[in-house]
Predict the 3D structure of the following.
Amino acid sequence: MFRKHHFIKISLTFLITTLFYLHSFAQNWDIPDDKKTKNANFKFTNQTISEGEAIYTKNCMSCHGNLGKDNSLKTLNPIPPDLASVKTQERTDGELFFIITTGRMLMPSFKVILSEEERWKLTSYIRSLNKKYVQIVSETNTSKSNLIKIKMDFDSLTNKLKVDVKANETSGVVSLKDAEVMLFVLRYFGKLQIDKTVRTNNEGIATFNFPKDLPGDKTGNVDLVVKVSDEIYGEVETQSKFKAGIPTDKPSLTEKRAIWNVLKKAPIWIIITYTSIVLIVGAVLLYIIYSLMKLRKLGNN
Amino acid sequence: MLDQSKTDKITTDLLRPIRLNKAFVLWMGFLGISLVICLYAYTLQLKNGMVVTGLRDYVSWGMYISNFVFFVATSLIGMLISAVLGLSGAKWAAPLARIAEIIALAFAAVAGLVIISDMGHPERLMYVFIYGRIQSPIVWDITVVSVYVVISALLLYLPLIPDMKICYNKLEKIPKLNRWLYKILSLNWNGSLEQEKIIKNSTRILAILIIPVALAIHTVTSWLFASTSRVGWDSTIFGPYFVTGAFVSGSAAVIIAMFFYRKNFKLQDYITDLHFDKMGKLLVLVSLVYLYFNLNEFMVPAYKMKKFDAIHLNDLFAGSYALMFWAVQILGLVLPILLLLFRKMRKPLPITIIAIFVIVGAWFKRYIIVVPTQEHPYLPIQNVPLNFKIYSPTLTETLITIAPFILVLIIITLLSKLIPVIPVHESIHQNEETQNEN
């Protein structure tokens, strides 16, 4: 009875371990063909490389280490590769861009954190040590993004935000169909995505459900950012203020007297305790000096 | 008549060391040259910055701060001997009071300089006064250490006033400047009852005042650590733990000083075996209390072994600090306690050797309190060179760490060549009292 139990236990453990290994080996970057061939629509220059390096230091270095130094964080599973390695450099620009954008397992997605332009600049930095690399610049017309006009409309009754995306073509105003739209609200340390990413309908309209409990400023205003990505028109971002949050008036942590505050805002009890101790000790010392002066005078007589 | 001859003997005996001799010049020369070498190391630090030390981003408090804690600790002995023992009427300690005060003053005064070496550029000290916040233990520390230096100086000076007069009267062959100094410092002492009363009262007030101040300096020093939530520092007993540890190193320092004064100044009649015996018992007492605090400080977290505590404690008990940790606990604390339980071990020579072990152990104990914690932060250390992870002091840093010790020795040497290390006036007084009793 006991033995049988034991056998099942061991077999199960073995099976699970094997499956886990197979799982982590089998799962690979699954990159769609059309994304593989995607390219940046600007030339990689020293300027883009140095901007990319700043982005890399802030977002990537903690795991991937310094480029070409093979000092990535080996304690992670899977081990993050050194991005200057041959295996990574063999990938196309589109593949790198896709990996940065979507992320996988431990690698986070940078779709929301970095703009498309920043992700391409990052790619240019990752290429910077590769001498054999020749860039293919996309021939997409960048000027097309200037034509996009975004209109935001917040309905406070239903708490819905309507985004209307149009393009001012020479032939007249057209609605952008099936364009990807993301909604963010600005917070202290970055952008917080609201609702899911949605695609515009045939009229070029995307609708978002806005939460009812989002804290705003004193009057309830929040800064909303809408990001539109379209295959033809490229990426456009616009920002505007709406009264969509709950009015919040929390005093800042440095407003009142506190132990962590500046000297002028020290807690009263500390000021009283410290000053009175110093004064008392000072007074005693002065008394001693006075006594010594008296002693000297006594000697004169 | 007999009385007078005895008084004369005491005076000549105690004033004899106050003269320049060859040994003094050689010793000061040695200290001076050593100091110059150490100051050269300090100029290197001024010129090239803190990079000449082993201090990096993670371990930013190294030997300098360990040294500071050690200096503040050792200076606490002045309070124990001249105030606690004095007020409780332990007469045997009276001849040792001045030695303890000299040690207290020297160590406390130099402790401030040790901090400046850790600041890199010395002018940064001004920032403490310009931008200091009274909510910060650093400002409290600076306040109490300065107050302690002043009180220690006064407590050294007050019983010295009658002695200054004796020095002025008896020492006629010394340079004019010294005599003039004695005259000024004796404050027209004429030994009247009123003057005696002023000295007695003032000394008493200071002896009472110095107890809370001394407790404060080391408690606040411990708060520099305990007011953070880092492993090894985040402890509620850090204040008393530091204070009791301070008495251990201070008592050891006094024993060593007693031995050298007795031998070099030929004070065998004044610093007797009885004094060593009593100091030995005192050292056992304070060491036992300290051992008790050590037990609490390490046993309680080690029983629980919380995640981050475990990393730290394993490194101390069985890791890279194990040798230092156990050497400090056994050679610097447990063995001295056991040995000093035997009367033979409390004789001058053996107890001095034990005291040297205790004081060296006390220094390394401060190192163990200050450094390892910083190598075990809560957030993982990533992508840094090895010398950021593991602190190893450099030669320059070691020389700068030695400098304060030389300074302390210079101050002690100069003081003991200017003033009688055993109170003359008090010794005469006590002698008269015992004769009257007979």
Notes: Residues 193 and 224 of chain A are 10 Å apart (CA to CA). The longest strand of chain A covers residues 160-169. The beta strands of chain A are 148-155, 160-169, 172-175, 180-187, 190-199, 205-209, 222-230, 234-242.
